[in-house]
Request: fold
Amino acid sequence: MGTTRLWKWLGIIFVMSFATLGWLGREIYLAAPPIANVQVMEGPQLFTAEQVEDGQRAWRAAGGQQLGSVWGHGAYVAPDWSADWLHREAVALRSQLARKHFNAAYDKLDPANQAAVDAMLKREMRANTYDKATNTVTVSPERAAAIAEVQKHYVDLFGNSPEFAKLREQYAMPENALPSIESRTALSAFFFWSSWSAATDRPGETGMSYTSNWPHEPLVDNEMTTSSAVWSMVSIILLIAGIAAMVWWHTAKRDEDDPSPPKADPLFGAKATASMLATRKYFFTVIGLFLVQIGMGAIAAHYAVEGTAFFGIPISEILPYTQARTIHTQFGIFWIATAWLATGLYIAPLLSGHEPKLQKLGVDALFWALIIVVVGSTLTGWLGALQRAGYDFNFWFGSHGLEFTGMGRFWQILLFVGLLFWLLLLGRALWPALKKPSETRGLVAMVFLSAGCIGLFYAAALTWGQKTHYAMVEYWRWWLVHLWVEGFFEVFATAVIGLIFARLGLVRAASANRAIIAETIVFLFGGILGTLHHLYWTGTPTSVIAVGAVFSALEVVPLALLGLEGWHNYQRSKAAPWVQAYRWPILFFVAVGFWNTVGAGLLGFAINPPASLYYVQGLNLTPAHGHAALFGVYGMLGIGLMLFCLRGLFARSVHADRLLALTFWGLNGGLAMMVFMSLVPAGIVQAIAAIDVGLWYARSPELIHSALMETLVWLRVPGDIVFSFGGIFLALYALRLLGKTDSVAQVAQTPRAAE
Reply:
């Protein structure tokens, strides 16, 4: 198939996929559980709709998805508050019903009477009493009493009640997480609403809640739905068929073999321009941010066993768990994105042979703008975590309490402007290469288009407000996070690697061009609508489960063969003696292929089918996939691209490859140990608990702080140490380069493209 037809198919799939995603977004908006007043039958009002909205703001201000989770999205030390409230309310209501009808505690009843109480409990919890005309949910006096009991638990927990000191430590919560009694009351309203949505039947449905019966809670008949089971089976069949088709296509195609490599390095004579040299500070900053992320990850992991201290040091008073985890997740995005931004700015003049006027000034200005965003958002986020500035400060300058998209709106706007400015700098430098017909023009165009999507789609982070419905917050949040990671990052990665190998003469430009467009079609065909697998249980209609399950399976198909591409890259590293100069960047590209297959593919599909995710959402199998996929793929790629660029920014003789060998094996070995010695086993233990008892138990202190689970947490330490040494060796490599300023490549007086 010619490249023109491939481009047309890419355009059609892009438009149709986003049209479907947009239409389903409308359906989610219409089907979302209503935010209503809560009224006692012939009695007083318990909560107002405004309190529910304020409760969402309160939870996000207290840490949000860094302090437990709602509907399964968030951190893993504290409970999932939806599941926790649901179980506590069910137990409390069961006790109320037993005393009302049998004048005895539930545990004292005989099996027949217990069965009668269980049936009454399920009828009460599943009955949808929402009245659209008055926007009111009505509850019985007995349920009102149960709600009041659970509400007091949360009001005291998020305050400074001494009786909850131990529980707060187990949850890694500070005292007075929400100082205001009004905020704590509103918080309990939000938690009640999230659990009410999880157990109450949708209008017109029987045995199907707004969250498709998530979480698993036998007390209220929250069991996996038929649609979840059916579409899981369909997804597995499609996965097998898709991989078979991909293998057939891969073996049947008759692409040209790799060309004979040039006798000398084609890039050896290419001189760095002023703007290319200006990217050096980006890469050294990348390493600094990476080291901070490693440190914060170690602190956040330790909070799982010692919730208010770090080996006895009470650092939580200064650096609470929520902020340590926020920095850990946010800096991961920062340093990976910075590495990619710098790579784009470095290779653009190299590809085009064109140094636009004032390009260096633009590169410098963008760098300092990024520094302001990183430092400013971190400091104001920390101030917001102290809970002294109010909701408005948190929203605009502090933290939104959302994973990966937690920066205050002011910083989000600045970052969006910065990404657009990066796109401008990249475009003006690449323009000559885009205009001039060549075998690599398609690859250059793909790099620019994927970069454009990376920048433009950050606008999704600007869509929600302080009181936006939580179901829609999650919808738009995953537009950014998933479409970046499973869509445009993949395209950018494959296009840049293809360009590098084409410029080095290790692959044929024409075949690489066709392959990249074809791979992009496959990536986006599954990746765009695969976004929906994050939204199965977030108050969405069952159509989301069907579409999400099907396309999530198709996401895995191209990943299954990226390991093979990694092997091909390894073979290319031996193509000629001069290629050894690029050995370690290429080996990091090989690692990308491996972790794409294992981390994104294997571990991703292990949790993506609805039947699996129903039980494991919010458990440690999720960060196992997240660490292996985010760092294993995009972190390794960022480091590989950085090392490639540094080869052109410093004389070949000053690069300490021995340190890079230690870096490579330390990072890969440490990551594998972390994932497979700790996170995966811990996730399996939790999954068994969720299936046997319920999700509330899988996230409870009884299990999380059991001897087995704490042992599994401690088993992260060997992997963390090995991984940290990998990061330290990378820093030593960078420091060695900094000490060789006299070996920096000279600025080209007349920029030229590397032929």
Summary: The CA atoms of residues 66 and 322 lie 5 Å apart. The radius of gyration is 27 Å. Confidence is low (pLDDT under 50) at residues 746-755. The longest strand covers residues 37-40.
